[in-house]
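Entry for magnesium ion complex. Fields follow.
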Amino acid sequence: MTHDPHERGEGEVCASVAGLPPLPSVGLTGGSPLEGSGDFSIGGALWPGVSKLIEEAGEVIQVAGKLLGSRGVEVHWDGSNLRERLEEEIADLLAACVFVVEENGLDRDAIDGRAERKLALFQGWQRPKTEERA
Ligand SMILES: [Mg+2]
């Protein structure tokens, strides 16, 4: 699908769904800085979902930081459970990853293959340490 990202103001549609005023475009696609194309956002024409990917990755980092700060204690001082929050944010990040892959035509087979190799590497690092502690 090809279209002019400034033609319909997708950013305004996306923002109105969330009940927010439209964000001004920074003009990265060459249009007026106030047209609001929604670039990098879900619903945008340029790299849709990338801003959500960044947001969700940041939320995983935030919860992981809280786990470090609590020395691994899962009950945070604010009363939330950090294990549950980490599960939720990882789920959000996985969804954002799949969305970006699908909506931007990235090579899913190449990504899956690399992910499998990377997982095997990580597991290879973990296994001897787990066995040492057993
Ligand atoms: Mg989230």
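NOTE: The mean pLDDT is 84.
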